[in-house]
Design goal:
alpha+beta; 3 domains; two-stranded antiparallel ribbon; 21 helices; 4-stranded mixed beta sheet
C-alpha cells in the first residue's frame, strides 16, 4: 500500500493552491442551485423594493455595489458574483492566522489552515451567495478582538469588538452575543480581576445587549425573523445532526479523536484549548436548535475545530483510532446517491455515470484506515486532503460534462435558436406549470416584453412520468431541474 502514501510527501501549501484553483473553476461552472441564491440575485437587481433589513445588511450592500459595477458585463453569468466569496475566504484565512498567533504562537500555521479550508462547509458556503462566509468571518473577528479585550487594556480592541458586533447585529447575526457573554462571564469569575476591568467588561456587555434588543425590536417591526427563535422538533434535531457530519468532513472523525485525547486522556490540557472546545460545543448546540439553518455558525467553528485538532494531536501517533476515517466514505455515497436520484430508475443511467462512480470510489480508497502502522495527524490529514480534493475535482468535471447542456437556461436558449429559429432578444416566453424564480432571473426580459416580438413561445413543464405533449408543431426537451433534483420535460410550442 506504499503507492498510496505519496500524498504525505506533498506540501500542505500545494493543496491550498490547488484548492483555490478548484474553487475558481467551480465558481464559474457551477450553476445556481438554491432558490435562496436566485431570490437574492433578483433582490440585488431590483432598484425599487429595498426593505430596511436590506439597507443595513453589509452582505447585501457589498453585492449590490459589486453588481452595479459589473452587472452590464455579466450577460446572464451570475456565477461571477461568487468572486466576492474569495475576498471573504482570504479574510477568514487572515483572522485565523491572527488567532493562532495570539493563542498558540508555536503551532504550525498551514496545516490547520489547510484542514479547515478544504472542508465540506467551506466548499458549500463558497458555492452559495447567502452570506454564510461573511457571517462566519464576522464571528471570528469578534472572537479575536474579544480575546484581545479580555487580556489587554487597549481601547482600540474594545472599539473594534463593538464595530464588528454592530455589523453582525445589523445582519441579523445575534449569535456573537452568546460567545461574548460566556467568555466574559468566565473572565468575571476571576476574583483577582481589577475593579476597573470588571466594570469595563460589564458596561460593554450591557451596551451590546441594549443595541441588540433595539435592533431586534426594529427587525420585528419590519417582519423579519429572529435567530433567537428556538425549535425543539426531534426531526429537526436529527436532520441537523445528519447535516453536520458531511459539512465538517474531513474533520468530523478527527474532531472526535481529538476530543477523546483532550478530555479523557487530558492531553494538552490547558485553558485556551478548553475555551476553544467550549465555543465549538456551544456553536453546534445553537446550530442544531436554531430556527433557520445558519451555515455561518459552522463556517465560524471550522477554523476553531482545525486549531483544536492540530494542537491536541500534534504529537500523537495514531494507529487503530484511524478507523474513524471510515466517515470519509460518506462523501462518495452522497455523490452517487445524488446523481442516481436524478433518474427515474437505475436502468436509465448512462454508461459514463458508472465509470464516474468507479473513479470516485477509487480515489476514496486513499484513506488512512488502510495503513496499519501508526501515523502523525499531519500525515493522515494529507492523505484525507488528497482524497477529498480529487473526489470533488472529478465530481465537478463530470457534472459539468454530463449535465451542463441539460440545465434549464441552456436548453431554453439552445432550443429557441436551433430548433425554433428564434432569436432570444425577439422572443416572448409564456410559462405553463412552473413558477421557479430561475426563469424570472434568466428570462425576465423575455417574460415581460413591452413590444411585439417576432416569436411567441409557450413553455409547458411536465414530469417525465407524464406523456410528453404530442404536437407536430412543438418540440419536447428533457432537462435537469436542480430545484426538483430530477429530470423533467419541457414542451416548446411556437404560437
Amino acid at each position: 500500500m506504499s503507492i498510496f502514501r505519496f500524498p504525505e510527501k506533498i506540501p500542505t501549501f500545494f493543496y491550498l493552491i490547488f484548492f483555490f484553483l478548484l474553487l475558481g473553476v467551480l465558481s464559474v461552472v457551477t450553476p445556481l442551485i438554491s432558490n435562496q441564491d436566485i431570490g437574492f440575485i433578483i433582490s440585488i437587481k431590483d432598484e425599487t423594493n429595498l426593505s430596511f433589513s436590506k439597507i443595513i445588511d453589509l452582505h447585501f450592500l457589498i453585492y449590490k455595489a459589486f453588481y452595479s459595477i459589473i452587472g452590464s458585463l455579466m450577460s446572464g453569468q451570475y456565477q461571477i458574483l461568487r468572486v466576492i466569496n474569495f475576498l471573504y475566504l482570504l479574510l477568514i484565512v487572515f483572522i485565523t492566522y491572527k488567532i493562532i498567533k495570539l493563542k498558540f504562537y508555536d503551532l504550525d500555521l498551514w496545516n490547520p489552515i489547510g484542514a479547515f479550508l478544504i472542508s465540506g462547509g467551506i466548499l458549500f458556503s463558497f458555492l452559495t451567495i447567502q452570506g454564510f462566509l461573511l457571517s462566519g468571518l464576522l464571528n471570528l473577528f469578534i472572537l479575536y478582538f474579544l480575546f484581545k479585550t479580555l487580556e489587554e487594556n487597549k481601547i482600540t480592541n474594545l472599539i473594534f469588538l463593538n464595530i464588528f458586533s454592530l455589523i453582525a447585529f445589523l445582519m441579523g447575526n445575534f449569535y456573537c452575543l452568546v460567545i461574548i457573554t460566556v467568555l466574559s462571564l468566565i473572565k468575571l469569575i476571576n476574583f483577582k480581576l481589577e475593579k476597573e476591568k470588571r466594570l469595563s467588561i460589564i458596561s460593554n456587555i450591557s451596551f451590546l445587549y441594549i443595541v441588540a434588543i433595539v435592533l431586534l425590536i426594529i427587525s420585528r417591526l419590519d417582519q423579519e425573523t429572529s435567530l433567537l427563535n428556538i425549535h425543539y422538533s426531534l426531526k429537526l434535531v436529527s436532520d441537523r445532526l445528519t447535516y453536520i457530519i458531511p459539512i465538517l468532513l474531513p474533520l468530523t472523525g478527527t474532531l472526535l479523536i481529538a476530543f477523546f485525547f483532550n478530555i479523557f486522556k487530558k492531553l494538552n490540557w490547558n485553558r485556551d484549548l478548553l475555551f476553544f472546545l467550549l465555543i465549538i460545543v456551544i456553536s453546534i448546540i445553537v446550530f442544531i436548535f436554531s430556527e433557520e439553518m445558519n451555515l455561518g455558525l459552522l463556517v465560524f467553528i471550522l477554523p476553531l475545530i482545525s486549531i483544536y485538532i492540530f494542537r491536541t494531536l500534534e504529537f500523537v501517533q495514531m494507529k487503530w483510532t484511524k478507523l474513524i476515517y471510515l466517515s470519509l466514505f460518506i462523501i462518495p455515497i452522497l455523490i452517487i446517491y445524488t446523481d442516481t436520484s436524478f433518474y427515474l430508475s437505475i436502468e436509465n443511467l448512462p454508461f459514463e455515470n458508472y465509470l464516474f462512480y468507479g473513479f470516485v470510489i477509487l480515489f476514496s480508497l486513499f484513506n488512512p484506515i488502510f495503513f496499519i502502522q501508526a501515523q502523525s495527524i499531519i500525515e493522515i490529514h494529507k492523505i484525507a486532503l488528497f482524497s477529498f480534493i480529487m473526489v470533488f475535482s472529478l465530481t465537478a468535471g463530470f457534472f459539468y460534462y454530463q449535465y451542463n447542456d441539460q440545465l434549464i437556461p441552456n436548453v431554453i436558449s439552445q432550443t429557441l435558436e436551433n430548433d425554433l429559429k428564434c432569436s432570444m432578444e425577439e422572443s416572448k416566453l409564456k410559462i405553463i406549470e412552473n413558477e421557479s424564480p430561475l426563469l424570472s432571473l434568466y428570462f425576465e426580459d423575455n417574460i415581460y416584453l413591452n413590444f411585439e416580438p417576432e416569436c411567441n413561445i409557450q413553455l409547458t413543464f411536465t414530469s417525465l412520468t407524464d406523456l410528453p405533449i404530442n404536437d407536430i408543431n412543438s418540440v419536447n426537451k428533457t432537462v435537469l431541474d436542480l430545484n426538483q433534483k430530477s429530470f423533467i420535460n419541457i414542451n416548446f410550442k411556437k404560437l
